[in-house]
Protein 1
Amino acid sequence: MSNLIDWFANRRKSVPQTPKQQEREIADGLWTKCPMCGVLAYTKDLQANQMVCLECDHHLRVHSDERIRQLIDGKTWQPLKENLLPTDPLKFSDRKAYRDRLADYQNKTGMTDAVQVGSGHLDGLPVALGVMDFRFMGGSMGSVVGEKLSCLIEHATQEKIALIIVCASGGARMQEGMFSLMQMAKISGALHRHREAKLLYIPILTHPTTGGVTASFAMLGDIILAEPKATIGFAGRRVIEQTLREKLPEGFQTSEYLLEHGFVDAIVPRTQLKKTLAQLISLHQPFSPINSQEEEPQTTIDNEEEVINNNN
C-alpha cells in the first residue's frame, strides 16, 4: 500500500505544470512579472520605483489613479466633472451594444469614462491635470472625454495655471462616430484660448498614443514630453505602408524616433517626470500673466548705478 502511495506522489511531482497553474502561484499580487525581460519583482518595490522595471527599465503601464498619485502632492487632488456619464447617441451595436459595453468597463475600472481630470499641486505648484486611462476601451476619445478635457483646459485658463495632459489612447471612439471626431476641434479650440492667455501646456505621451489624440491635443503642447519606448503615431504601420507604397524604418513610431526627428522635445523616464515637470513649470512661472502683474517693477541698470552714486 505504501508503495502505491509513493508511486502516486512521485507521479504528481513529475507531471509538468501548465501555464495556468504557474500563473496561479504568482497571481496573488505580491509579485509582478516584467513583460519585457521576464524578471519577477516584488510589487511594492516596483510601485516604489513608479512601476519601472528594476532590471531593464521597462515602463509598465499604469492606470490613472496611480498616475495621479505619482504626480500630485498628497491630499491636494480636486477632481472635476466626476459625474459626467457617456450616452449612446447612435444606438450603436456590434458584437455587443455600446451601452452594455460602457457598463462593463465602468464596473471593471470604477471609472465613468476613459479620462480623469482635476487640479492639485505638483511639488507645491498649482496645476490642472488630465490623465487618460487605457483600461477603459483603450483610452478612446468619446464625447465625455472631450467634454472633460475641454472643461479642464477652461478651468486652467480661468485659474491661470499650467496644464498637463497624460495621453494614452487608441484614438477616437468609433461607437460615437462624428461625435467623437468633433472632440478634436473642441479640445484644440480650448487649447488655443489657453495659449492666447500665455499659459503653459505640457502633454505627456505614454504607451500608446495614437489616432485622433495624436492628431489633436497630444501634439499641440508648448513642450511635448514622452516616456521611453512609447508607441506614438496616427495610423498603423500596415495602413501607412499600403498608402505610401513604401517600406518604413523599424521603430518609426517610437518616442526615440520622434525625438530624433523633432516631433518630441524630450524623453523623460517616469522616475524623473515629476521633478522635470516642476522645473519646467517653475521656469515658466515668472512669465505668467498673474505673476507679471504681482511682481514689483525691476530697477534698471541705470537706476541701480544712480542709487549707488547717490549713496556714495
Protein 2
Amino acid sequence: MTTSDELNIITRIRDEVMSRKELTGENLFLAWGYPTAIVLLLEFAALMLWDENLTEWLWVGIPLVGTPLMLYFLNKDYKRTHRRTLDQNIILMIWMFIGFTSCIGGFAMGLSGVFEQCFFALLGLLCGMGCFITGIILNYRPKTICGVMASELSVTPLFLQGEQWPWQMFVTSIIVVIALIIPGHLFRSYVKNFQK
C-alpha cells in the first residue's frame, strides 16, 4: 500500500465521520424554537391588549408540540445514520438539562414569588448557553455567535420590572429567535448543502 492510498483512506474515513457528526439534528432547534417564540408573543399580546395573563395555559403547548416533533426528528435522523455519535448524545443531554432546569426553575421561582423578576432572564441565558455550547461541539460558528448574542441579551429582562414586565416576554421571544430559530435555519441550510 502506497502513501497516497493511505492518505485516501484517512481522508475517506474523516469525511465519513464528519458527515455522521454534522448531518443530524438540523430540525431540533426549530422544533422547540417556534413553539416557544409563538407562546411568548401570544402571552405578551394578551398582557398588552387585555392587561390580563389569559394565556398561561399555552405554556403547556410548548412541550406538547416540541416533544413529539423532537422525537420524530430524532427517529428520522437515527434511521438515516443508524447510530448516534457521542457528540449527538452530549448535545441531547445538554438540551434535556436546559429543559428540565427551565421547568424546575420556573416552578421554584413561581413558588418563591420571584417569577416575574427572574424567570425570563434565566430562560434567555439557558437558551443562549445551549446554543453556544452546541455550536462549539459541532464546530459550527453561526450557532456559537448566536449563542453569545442571546446570552448577552438575556440580562435585558432584569431591567424590565413592574409595569414593564410584559416586555420581558417580548425580549425573550427575540432571544429565542436568535438562539434557536435563526441558527436552526442556518444549520438546516448547511446540512442540505453538505448532503449535495
Protein 3
Amino acid sequence: MALFATLRKNALLTAMLVGTLLYELFALVPFLQPIGDEVGPILPDLLPVGLFTLLYCTFCKIRLSELQPRTWHFVIQAIRVTLSGSLVLMILALDNGWLPITIGEGRAEACKLILEGMFICFICPTASAVVVVAEKLGGSIGSLTIFTIIANMVTMVIIPVFFPLVEREAHITFLMAMLMLLRSVTLVLVVPLVLAQLTRRFLPAVSNKLNTCKNIGFYIWCFNLAVVTGLTVRNIQHSTVSGWVLWMLLITPLFVCLVQFAIGKAVGRHWGDSISAGQALGQKNTVVGIWLTLTFLNPLAAVAPGAYVLWQNLVNSWQLWYKQKHGYLIW
C-alpha cells in the first residue's frame, strides 16, 4: 500500500516509467514482440480520444466568463516569437558564414541540426492538456484555455515566416499552416469546450457529477503520457543520429525547457499568475513539434521535441510533488 501511495503521489513520473518499461519489455522479449507489433500502432490513435475526453471533463468546470484574454497572454507570445526568431538568426548566421570563427562543413551541419532542435522546442504551441497539470498546481483553467487558442493563432502566422528561413526547401504556406492548426485546435480544444458548456447549460447534473470525480482528467493524461513516453523512447533508440550530436539533441531541450518555464513564471508573477504563465510557455505540444520537424525540417532533429516532452513532464512531476508536500510552489 505504501508503494501504491508513493506511485500515486508521483503519477506523472510513474506514467513515464511505465511507458518506458512497457516499450522495452515488448520490444526486447521475443515472445512479446508480436503482441507489441500488433498493439503498438493502435496506441497513438488513442491519444486524441484520451485528450478529447480529459479536456471535456476539465472544461465542465469553467464558465465562459473566465475565457478572457489577459495582458500576459500577449507578452508571453511576444517572448515566444522573439526566442524562436533568435534561433532563426543563429541558423542563418551559420548557413551564410556570418560567424566570426570558421567551422568545418561536417561540424556546421551538426550544429545546425542541434539549433533546429532547439528552434522547434521554442516555436511549438502550448499543449492543449496544459490545463490539466495547471489545475493541479493551482493555475487558471479559463485563462490557459484562451491562451492556448491565441498561441495556435500566432503559430499559424510565424511558421510560414520562419520555416523557409530555417530550411530553404520548407515550402509551407500560411493557408497550409492555418488549416493544419485549425483542424487540431477545433477537434481537440474547441469541440470539447463547446460540448462541456452545453453540458453545463442543459445537463447540469452530468457536469456536477463529473466535477465530483476529482483527478479523472489528470489520470487520463497519465495514460496519454505513458504512451507518448514509450513512443519517444522508441524514436530515440531508433534515431540514426549518434555520438555527441545525439546527446546534444537530448540535453539542449532541458535547457530550453527550464528557460521557458522560468521566463513564463517571471512574466506571470508580474500579473499575479505565475503558475498559469509558467505552464503556458513551458508546456509544449511536442506531438505537433515532431510532426512539423519530420515534415518540413531535418527529420533527424525530431529527437529534440521528443526529449522535450520527457523534460517538461519531469519538471511538472517535481512541481506537483513539491505542491503536495509543502502546499505551495517555491518556483
Protein 4
Amino acid sequence: MKNTDVEPAEGRLGILIVGNGAVATTFITGVLMARRGLAKPIGSMTQYDKVRVRDNKRETTDNNGKETGKRYLHYGEIVPLASLDDLVFGCWDVYPQNAYQAAVYAQVLSKEDIDSVRDELEQIVPMAAAFDKDYVKRLDGNNIKVACCESHKSYETHKSYESHRPQSSLPTRWEMVELLREDIRRFREEKLCSRVVVLWAASTEIYVPVDKDVHYSLEALERAMKADDRKHVAPSMCYAYAALTEGCPFIMGAPNTTVDIPAMWQLAEKTQMPIAGKDFKTGQTLVKSGFAPIIGTRCLALDGWFSTNILGNRDGLVLDEPENFHTKEVSKLSTLETILQPDEQPDLYGGYYHKVRINYYPPRNDNKESWDNIDIRGWLGYPMQIKINFLCRDSILAAPVCLDLCLLIDLAARAGRWGMQRFLSFFLKSPMHDYTQGERPVNHLYRQHTMLRNALREMGGYEADEEMD
C-alpha cells in the first residue's frame, strides 16, 4: 500500500443499524461467520474485487515480457479498510427480539448457520426505535421511544405499550434526535469504538416530497424539528441528523427522502461527515442498470419496460401499503431515463413506457422473484422482445452491499471526503446528486464502477486511469 493521506483504520468500527430484520441479521450473521472462518463473504467487492492501478515507479511485465506498470490489487491493498475482526454491531428496532431471535424469525439463513454464531447474535439487543406509525402503517412494534411525562423532559421505552397508542405519546422530532444522539454516544462508549457508521436497513417510509420551505436549508429543517413538524420531518431524518451531529457517516439503504435534501447536505458539510443513499441496489434494479446499457450501447430502440416483483418478507408487507410503495416506485423509475437519455436520442427512447410493480406474496418470504418484459425495436423498426426472470434472495444480495457501504463510507470519512459520496452510486438504486443545480444522477452500472475504482485509486495515492464519458 502506498503512503496516503487517509487516516489508518485503527480501533473498533461500530456499525449501528436502523432495523433488525432480514437484511440486518443476514449481514451481521455473515460477518460473524466469515471472521470465524465458517463461511466466505461472497458478493462483497471490498473482500474480493480487484482494481487495476498504474505505478510508473514499479516495473511489472506482461506474459510477453513487456513492461506495463500495471497491477491488479484488492481494495485493502490500495486503501486502509477496516478489518472484519474490528467490526462491532448494534441496532434499533421496533421489535425487542435480539439478533439471534430476529435472524431465526426472518428465515433467510439456515438454523445451523445462525446457531454457529448464536452467542454473539444474542448479545445484540435492539435499542428502542424512534418510530412514527403514520410513516409505516403495516408495522405494530412496541419497542419504541415514547414521552413519559407531561414536560417531555424524560423518556422511557414502553415494551408493552399498546399498538393503538396515541400519537401524542411520541417524543417530538427534536426530542427523537436527542434520544438517538444519547444512544450513539452510549454505544460508542460501551463498545469502545473509535468510529461509528449508521446504516438504515429498516422499512421504506411513506413518500415525503421535497419542500423548499423546510428541506432546502439546515436552519429551516432544525426549526421544523423543534416545532414537531411530523408531516415534513420523517423519523429517518432524525436518525440521519443524530448520526451526522455525533460524527458518524450515514447510509440510507431505503428509498426514503432522508438525506436527499439540501438541508442534510449542509449538515454533512458542517459536520464534515460523508453521506450516501439511497436504496440498496440488489435485484431487479441491479439487472436493469446493467442491461439497459446494452440496449443503449447497441443503439436499439426501446418501446416499453415492464417490471414486476413478488416478495413475502416484512419489506414486502410494508410495500403493500400504497403510500410506502410510492416511495419505492419513485426510486425504481429513475434508472432508465438517466441511462438511455431520451432527450439525446428521441428516435430510440423518446416515447418508451416504463412500469414498476411490487406484489406482497407471503409464501415466498425473502425469496423475491422479478420479471422484466422489454419491448425493443431493431433495424427498420422491427419489434423484438427480451424476458428476464430473476429468482433472487433479497437479503443474500443486500448483505454484502451493507458490508461494502459501511467499510467504504468509513474509508471516505478517514480520507476527509464529506458530503455526498457519489462513488458509492454503484451500490444504490437512486444515486445522490445535486438536483438543485440540474445535476443528473449516474445510473449506468459500468460508469458507476469506473467512479468507484477511480475514487479508490485517488484515495490510495494512484492516478485515475479511466475516464467516464
